[in-house]
Amino acid sequence: MTNVIPETNTIETQNGNLHYDYLVLAMGTETNFFDNDNVMKNALPMKTIEDALNIRNHILLQLEEAVRADTVSDQEELANIVIAGGGPTGVEMAGMLAEMALNITVKDYPEAGAKLGNIYLVDGLPALLGPMSTKAQEEACKVLLKLNVKIKLNTLVNDYIHNEVILSTGEKIKAATLIWTSGVIARKVPGLSPETITKGRRILVDEINRVTQYGNIFAIGDQCLQETDKNYPKGHPQLAQVAIQQARQLADNLNYLEQGKPVQAFAYNNKGSMAIISKYKAVVDLPKGFFSGFLAWAVWLFIHIIPLVGFRNKLKLAFNWFYSFITNDPTLRLIIKSDKK
């Protein structure tokens, strides 16, 4: 979609124009670099499958160069990894890379010794996992510190140029890899009135997810901001569960509109949140409690297997995970395309 024309109920696309009776915007978000051109150009975002593949290829290529480096300083620069953003994505990434360093790097690159570089996790808030409970934040910090992750809180990444991460504290970290998980921004929808767009480029909607000023345009998920829910007067968290519940409610409401029946206001049912930190370590926040450790880790795995389509896919993934866990030897270490950089 390249443009919306509300006056004629039309959207323009690269393959022609389409007429609509009802338009539902569910385009999600994209990485927010906060207008930092150097970070946008040199950092590695973590948003799509392509981004994940690019991160894997990039890190493996840097390790290949690090073991051939002539000096210790060059080796550390190539192997150092800075992760900007201490939310669930940043915490999970830091834990995964730390375990990779402990269990895989030493085996694949024995000539480099026990430690190639450092993993830094940088966040502007005073605690990791900002939206989660204090217990979850403390557990994440404790586990990552045991994995030798260097955590820097109340700190922002101001710039990244010539393999040098410049922090808001004035500290500079030489690192060939900056992974950016520091925030998202809603995707642009050209054609909508500027009065409907608010902070983070989110679209203002009413209690049934209808875009303000329009009668037949709706927005759901991360892309919208709904302030009518009494339990979330500043808008809902940008989570998958919010999008799923809004989509189901909107589907019912569209049917009600067609049938001339009263519509129902959306109210988010918070089922909890979770984050995996490392092997056998995770945190789960429920509306009425908190738990962590192996049980939380097992629940995280179970919940991520259930939505897969087909029993074969579920069984295959479960077997692959089980093999990786008992051997500490994941097989996904092939460089399947050249590094974008």
Quick take:
By secondary structure, the protein is of the alpha/beta class. The chain contains eight helices and 20 strands.
Looking across the biggest beta sheet, what order are the strands in?
A: 6-13-7-8-9
Major sheet attributes: 5 strands, parallel
As a percent range, the share of helical residues equals 25-40%
Number of separate strands? 20
How far do the termini sit from each other?
A: 29 Å
Radius of gyration, whole Å: 22 Å
**What name does CATH use for the topology of the largest domain?**
FAD/NAD(P)-binding domain
Query: What is the number of domains?
Result: 2
> Mean pLDDT, rounded to whole units?
91
Number of helices: 8
User: Which CATH first-tier class of the largest domain would you pick?
Assistant: Alpha Beta
Helical/strand content category: alpha/beta
The rough form would be described as globular
What is the N-to-C order of secondary-structure elements (H for helix, E for strand)?
EEEEEHEHHEHEHEEEEEEEEEHEEEHH
DSSP strand content: 15-25%
What is the second-level CATH architecture of the largest domain?
Answer: 3-Layer(bba) Sandwich
Which consecutive residue ranges, at least 5 long each, have pLDDT under 50? none
What would your notes on this structure say?
It is a single chain. The protein is of the alpha/beta class. It folds into 2 domains: 3-31 and 185-259, FAD/NAD(P)-binding domain, CATH 3.50.50.60; 37-182 and 275-327, FAD/NAD(P)-binding domain. Helices cover 34% and strands 22% of the residues. It is built from 8 helices and 20 strands. The protein has helices at residues 37-42, 49-66, 72-79, 88-108, 134-146, 240-259, 294-305, 311-327; strands spanning 3-5, 10-13, 16-19, 23-25, 29-31, 44-45, 81-84, 119-122, 150-152, 157-161, 164-167, 172-174, 177-180, 184-186, 203-205, 217-219, 224-226, 273-278, 281-286, 289-292. Helix 5 links the parallel strand 8 and strand 9 (150-152). Helix 2 (49-66) packs antiparallel against helix 3. The two termini are 29 Å apart. The model has no long low-confidence stretch (mean pLDDT 91).
